Amino acid sequence: GPIDVHQSDGVVYAGTSQGTVAVGTPAGVGLPPTSYTVTNAASDPNGVAHLFFVTKVADDGTPNGTVYVCYSNDTDILLKHSTDKGVTWSLPVRVSNVGTNTNVFPWMETGPTQGSVGIVWYGTVGGNDDNAEWKVYYAQSFDAHTNNPTFRLAEVTEPEHIIHAANISEGGLTGANNR
Question: N or C end of the chain: smaller count of CB under 10 Å?
């Protein structure tokens, strides 16, 4: 999964497709971590990866940075955060409130201020099948580090266009459909 480093203290965060985050603290200034602590950040009966389980740490001026995970359970795009280096995690917050039934492939970036994130993903009104018409959506928050963040949502795809037709392979390197 994606790896990110808190620029202020060198702590490494690596997410996995099973919803865990490995946290490695450097052995000293300029040295890499020698061990990692793995915690469960997210779980869902429908899975948490659907190809991407994005893990990012914000260099937002807080002592530990705020760590975020963003993932798809194949229906919704969800966001969680941790302010204690991944020891504990917030409850999941639904990001994909745009009238779509299937949402996959989230990606996220953090901003320079505490709570600022931007999330992009594919969404379709139907299911992930041959009739799907995928569009791109974007959500922006400036209070994502709170328990009830607010999001500005936008459809990035022009209204009369689709970005991808038919199903999307969620198999990664082993997937074959519409790869």
Answer: C
